[in-house]
Amino acid sequence: MKRCSGPLCGELRPLSSFGSSVARPGGLLNYCRECTGELQRRRKTRMTPIVPIPELEPDLEFDRREASAESEEPPRKRRKADYSDALYLMEIDCGHEEHNATMRTVFGLKIGRSFDADERAKSLSRSMPFVLKVLAEFPGCASIEHEVHEALAAFQNTNGQGREWFFVSFGRAVETIGQVLQRSSKHAVTPRSGSGSSG
């Protein structure tokens, strides 16, 4: 038995109620499948494109048709791919744009992976005098994190022990992610704008 640490239930559940993850201690996700599914549904409803990259731009008309078709059909069992991790872009948010610009110069952008980028930003912000804001999230693209880091290695912030910080602009980071996605050609994904964690 394991207690779900998801924000929705927090119940004690059998181990079979949790997805597996080689990156987590114990080999299981912290959220049960029900919480995971509900969080994914909530995240999908707020997904919007953030930059006009033709390869990543959504077909909005198709999305509307798909949404109306979904409302007419009974809910189907979701495929396992819907539960995959996301690649994210974060920055330090001090609350004032001029300070944020300075922080970008000093630290850069954080490019990492997480099942829940907003929760990851909150978790990292808890011990800081500032917050981390999610700028973009690429669902299902966590597997390309290493390739993106390699592509941006020349811009890596080597001050300190963090290895996910890069001195690149938001546009350069998104462009690099798009290029890596094209090379890997195993993802068809739409980035979502971050809701941030500035609250």
Describe what is shown at a glance.
The chain is α+β, with helices and mostly antiparallel strands and 199 residues long. The protein has helices at residues 33-45, 60-72, 97-107, 117-125, 145-151, 170-184; strands spanning 2-3, 12-13, 18-20, 28-32, 86-93, 109-114, 131-139, 165-166, 192-193.
Classification by helices and strands: alpha+beta
Report the span from N to C terminus. Answer: 34 Å
- Count of individual beta strands: 9
Low-confidence regions = 48-58, 77-83, 195-199
Number of helices: 6
Shape: globular
Q: Into which percent range does the helicity of residues fall?
A: 25-40%
List the helices and strands and how they pair.
Layout: E1 2-3, E2 12-13, E3 18-20, E4 28-32, H1 33-45, H2 60-72, E5 86-93, H3 97-107, E6 109-114, H4 117-125, E7 131-139, H5 145-151, E8 165-166, H6 170-184, E9 192-193
Antiparallel strand pairs: 1-2, 3-4, 5-6, 5-7, 6-8, 7-9
How does this structure look, described?
Strand 1 and strand 2 (12-13) form a beta hairpin. The longest helix has 15 residues, at 170-184. The chain contains 6 helices and 9 strands. The strands form 3 sheets. A 5-stranded antiparallel sheet has the order 8-6-5-7-9, with helices on both faces. It is an alpha+beta fold. The chain has 2 domains: 1-45, no CATH class; 83-193, no CATH class. It is 34% helix and 20% strand.
Search tags:
single chain; 199 residues; alpha+beta; 2 domains; five-stranded antiparallel β-sheet; two-stranded antiparallel ribbon; 6 helices; 34% helix; globular; disordered C terminus
